Amino acid sequence: MSIYSTGFRLIFGMLDKIRSHSETAPEEVSVLKDITYKDNQQLDIYYPENIMDRYAVIINVHGGGWVYGDREVYRNYCMTLASMGFAVINYDYRLAPKYKYPAALEDLNDVLHFIKQHADCLKLDLTKLYGIGDSAGAQLLSQYTVMMTNTSYASKYEMKLPELEFKALALNCGIFDPIERISKTSRSPVLWYLKRLLNDYIGEDYLELRELLNFDVYVTTDFPPVFIANSVNDLLVGKQPMILRTFYRNHVPFVYREYGHRDVMSLHNFQLDLKRRTAQNCMIETLTFFHHQN
């Protein structure tokens, strides 16, 4: 474990513990817990109170700089999504630096294979499949979706993808161009730290993988509609990610929202703190966007 990943885990672990201390999970949600989807990797599934034959599905890809995060951190957020009428998949993936790129992508692929194989017994309607990712999770989710929608890009990986497609995505506080960011001449301490995390995630040859990690050139019109949310107070990511230009250029339908204009404490991954109005509004707008894709 590098000192950079250790420091990241300590800092964000403390912040998440403070945030979750006053959280209350919705009572009207049922849980299937600790389901093994591959080897020792597990997921939870949350269902709404209303019993249905099949449930629309949201897969949540957690953030954490590729080195931190788990199901417990996102439990309340995912259960709240489920209370709105979805079956929500909340899963763990292998973290760097112990597991290098593309382990996290492989785990997302395994989760999708698992839910496709068990969709009937889990009552999942995979014709209504949505994805939500934040921070590094937004990067992983969007990168994997490029694989799903561009066979040329997918051929660069030794993965067999399931025959599934996302109806829409929500990408919150995402880092979409990590290699491009750290390649710029800057004294930013954030970019300095991002470079160390990428070294933990990918290895010292991360610059050689620039084309794979900066996947925007592989985005096509087949990429699903996207809801993109950022906070104006996010010092880690900033505003208006460059990927918006990529979506616009390739005619990918998208909605971009900025939050936090009246709440300076709505910071990076603000959408998780559901006590705040900004997070509540973001969730409502996200799910409204999903419903409009049906």
Automatic annotation (TrEMBL):
The keyword Hydrolase applies. Pfam families: BD-FAE. Coiled coil: none annotated. GO terms for molecular function: hydrolase activity. This is Alpha/beta hydrolase. Residues 43-238 form the BD-FAE-like domain. InterPro entries: AB_hydrolase_fold, BD-FAE-like_dom, Carboxylest/Gibb_receptor. It comes from Macrococcus lamae. Keywords: Hydrolase. The keyword Hydrolase applies. SUPFAM superfamilies: alpha/beta-Hydrolases. Transmembrane segments: none annotated.
